[in-house]
Amino acid sequence: MHSPLQTRQPEQRCRPMTSTVSEIEEVIPDEDSDRTTLLNGEPLRRRVSGKLPVDEGPRRIFRQQSFGRDIGHAAAETYLITGLSFKLLRYLGVGYRWMTKLLALTCYAMLLMPGFLRVAYSYFFSKQIRRSIVYGDQPRNRLDLYLPSNNDGLKPVVVFVTGGAWIIGYKAWGSLLGMQLAERDIIVACLDYRNFPQGTISDMVTDASQGISFVCNHISAFGGDPNRIYLMGQSAGAHIAACALLEQATKESKGESISWRVSQIKAYFGLSGGYNLYNLVDHFHNRGLYRSIFLSIMEGEESFKKFSPEVRLKDPIVGKAASLLPPIILFHGSSDYSIPCDESKTFTDALQAVGAKAELVLYSGKTHTDLFLQDPLRGGKDELFDDIVSVIHAEDNDALTKDSLAPPRKRLVPELLLKLAREVSPF
């Protein structure tokens, strides 16, 4: 990137708080590690009353049970997603555009399968990944944590909201990014959230905000630095994260009760996002996300203003709250046809017009999936990845030195398959 933003220090330090569950609990740390012991992807806890023993006997039992619990959780999520898929089909009906997209998506996934299988293996078996940590009380209020193998000191943190057209988003979609950032000593928290038709846009924004709050208040228990938290979203996730960030700034400016502060976020990274629903509804309809479905997801056209960050900035109250926003960097490919790069251009202009610190980074010739999938699977040098890491490590000279000496990333998919996948991509 031409010139990394100098992110500002938080105005107020983020302190770990108690869990959002009704009973007050405390996390039991490993005796030989500064990390947190996890059971089925969740922190192993005991109540303050001390009734649960913490000797090695119960620990061994819990470890033996963890695999069975993982299988049970996977089965429950499979059942949930299958049910939602059938419900979604009733909304979609039988249409030429989406049937064509589905076929293209199948071909695309098959071509990239060698890389997906390798990532999936690491996702399920890596000791550095803590899966399905519960952050709220809704069915999909879970997150995955990607932890560096190096335990020295507190690590910077990226809260990542995955994309998926507000319909097929899932926390595991961020696994490749999470693993690669963890190799650079950065903790990544990939949030899951309710998708349509299980929820609508207001539910998604609420879930994302609650996940961000959990990370801000609890990440120190996992070795994260609560004063170096970055928010990132991709595609639909960029839209959801931007809505959550702007809504939080508005609440904060009004003096409303909040569980996390915008000043706790050092910077926001928006990757290939859309920020003005008025401009996107017809575009998506022509690409197979029919207007009727899009209106259902966004709670009707009357809600477009509320969930269009670019438009909301024109409201004097929201525009004033924009002064609270962290530095914002929007990344977009110039050949993105799923969400045109003009979305990031006009949002950058709107942010700058109200005094927010915003920067646009365009990647010439890159498509919607080049930046997030094909380039990372290709291995070697990745311009987007390097730009993100350079901002996160901008104030850490030792980390920058390590980055400069890091070996090239491994190729996960042959070049021929990557080129074919690019040609058939439905995105």
TrEMBL record:
Entry EC number(s): 3.1.1.n2
GO molecular function: hydrolase activity
Subcellular location: Endoplasmic reticulum membrane; Golgi apparatus membrane
GO CC annotation terms, alphabetical: endoplasmic reticulum membrane; Golgi membrane
Annotated ranges, domain BD-FAE-like: 143-351
Transmembrane domains' residue ranges: 102-124
Primary subcellular site in the record, as a coarse category: endoplasmic reticulum
UniProt membrane topology term: Multi-pass membrane protein
Pfam families for this protein: BD-FAE
Record keywords: Endoplasmic reticulum, Golgi apparatus, Hydrolase, Membrane, Transmembrane, Transmembrane helix
Catalysed reactions, semicolon-separated: [protein]-C-terminal S-[(2E,6E)-farnesyl]-L-cysteine methyl ester + H2O = [protein]-C-terminal S-[(2E,6E)-farnesyl]-L-cysteine + methanol + H(+)
Family the entry assigns: Belongs to the AB hydrolase superfamily. Isoprenylcysteine methylesterase family.
PANTHER family, alphabetized: AB HYDROLASE SUPERFAMILY PROTEIN C4A8.06C (PTHR48081), KYNURENINE FORMAMIDASE (PTHR48081:SF33)
Protein name: protein-S-isoprenylcysteine alpha-carbonyl methylesterase
Origin organism lineage: Eukaryota, Viridiplantae, Streptophyta, Embryophyta, Tracheophyta
